[in-house]
Specification:
The complex is a heterodimer. Chain A is of the alpha+beta class. In chain A, 18% of the residues lie in helices and 38% in strands. In chain A, strands 1-3-4-5-6-2 form a 6-stranded antiparallel β-sheet. Chain B has 2 domains: 136 residues, Lysozyme-like, CATH 3.40.80; 39 residues, no CATH class. Chain B is α/β, with parallel strands linked by helices. In chain B, a hairpin with a 5-residue loop joins strand 6 and strand 7. Classes of the chains: A alpha+beta, B alpha/beta.
Chain lengths: 114, 202
């Protein structure tokens, strides 16, 4: 678990990453996911490179891996929460709405720790 | 009952709606059937996507159970994605297979998507049923069903859709000599949301 109190203020005009709150796995794939982590700068970079995609495109073009990192953000000054998955997709939730993102040029952000 | 003629499964229960751009090359051997859900609420949405080519399956079952054939059974389509390691997932790898799979999956300095791609390429060197099915030896069936983004899960497959699925799988069993052991839900073989087709029965 990662807890921070510092806001990362650079980057996307739409999304500002506030914090990284949690990393983990939703299928008990602890060993596989053990080196997947993102800091605020990497999460910001992910959303700057990512595009909004449909559920169909997520199904057709991306792998859904059990590793995730979650945190808080601001989207156009509205509080939001985010979740980036190791396969290159992400969820952004705000005001009862959820958007799916995909990034195919985010290898650097999906590298995991060495 | 149905007849199989030049890759067309002919039956009064099946509407032919072939999308040539979905077809990527010859499908020489059919070993398996893969059951998917579309992630879209209507068949029309998926057909619009098929018009643009790209990914798709051989059949589509719509919300009221109508079956469409969307690609010839003599052609393969891109419906599966990267496959998992069958022996690794089932816990039945030999010592060498286990080392190879873990070396790839836990490789430091590689992104997670590239690890999955490398494992997929390694698995493709095996033959079915030692490995999971690939696009080159499987028939895909899409069931229309939306994805709830807030809950992050697919809607349940309806009774009428499952009835059509059971009939269609039965016809494919008959024509290709398959058994229920050769029918897989998409997330069993590839890295997909576990809820996809989880309520499908056949």
């Amino acid at each position: 678990m990662f807890l921070t109190s510092c806001a990362y203020s650079g980057g996307s005009p739409d999304i500002t990453i506030i914090s990284v709150d949690q990393s983990g796995t939703d299928q008990n794939k602890i060993e596989f996911c053990s080196d997947f982590s993102l800091d605020e700068v990497s999460a910001q970079a992910f959303f700057e490179r990512a595009e909004i995609i449909t559920a169909v495109k997520m199904h057709d073009e991306y792998s859904y891996l059990p590793c995730f990192v979650k945190g808080k953000c601001l989207r156009q000054n509205t509080p939001c929460s985010w979740e980036i998955r190791a396969g290159g997709t992400a969820y952004l939730a705000f005001d009862g709405e959820t958007i799916i993102y995909g990034c195919k040029s985010c290898s650097e952000q999906l590298m995991g720790r060495n | 009952m149905s007849k199989l003629v030049n890759g067309i499964l002919a039956s009064e229960r099946i509407i032919q709606k072939i999308f040539i751009d979905l077809e990527k090359g010859r499908l020489i051997k059919i070993n398996t059937v893969i059951v998917h859900q579309t992630g879209a609420a209507t068949a029309k949405h998926t057909f619009n996507s098929y018009e643009a080519g790209g990914s798709g399956a051989h059949f589509l079952i719509d919300k009221v159970g109508v079956i469409y054939q969307t690609a010839h059974l003599t052609k393969h389509t891109h419906h599966l994605g990267k496959i998992k390691s069958k022996c690794f997932e089932s816990g039945h790898c030999s010592k060498n297979e286990l080392k190879k799979a873990t070396d790839i999956l836990y490789e430091k300095g590689k992104s997670y998507p590239s690890r999955i791609l490398n494992l997929h390429q390694s698995e493709k060197e095996k033959t079915y049923p030692t490995r999971y099915p690939t696009n080159d030896d499987s028939v895909g069936i899409e069931i229309v069903g939306s994805f709830n983004k807030a809950k992050k899960e697919y809607e349940a497959v309806s009774k009428v859709q499952n009835g059509s699925l059971k009939w269609l799988v039965g016809q494919l069993h008959c024509h290709y000599g398959l058994t229920n052991l050769d029918v897989y839900r998409h997330p069993e073989v590839s890295y997909k949301k576990a809820s996809e087709a989880s309520s499908a029965t056949w």
